[in-house]
Amino acid sequence: MSAAQSLGRIAAAATRLSGACAGVASFAPPPLCGVRFGGSGSFGGGGGGALSSRRTLSRGSGGGGVCGVGGVGTSSSPRWDVRRTSSRWVATATPLPPSPSPPPPPLGTMAAAAPADATKSISDFRESYSETPLDEATVDADPIAQFRAWFDDAVRAGVTEPNAMCLSTVSAAGTPAGRYVLLKGVDERGFVWYTNYTSRKAADLDAVPAAALTFWWPELERSVRIEGGAARVPAAESDTYFASRPPGSRLGAWASDQSSPAADRGVMEARMAALEAEYYGPAGAAGGGEPIKDIPRPPHWGGYRLTPTLVEFWKGRKSRVHDRLCYKREAGGEGWTMTRLQP
Ligand SMILES: Cc1cc2nc3c(=O)[nH]c(=O)nc-3n(C[C@H](O)[C@H](O)[C@H](O)COP(=O)(O)O)c2cc1C
Question: Which domain of life is it from (predicted)?
Answer without folding.
Answer: Eukaryota
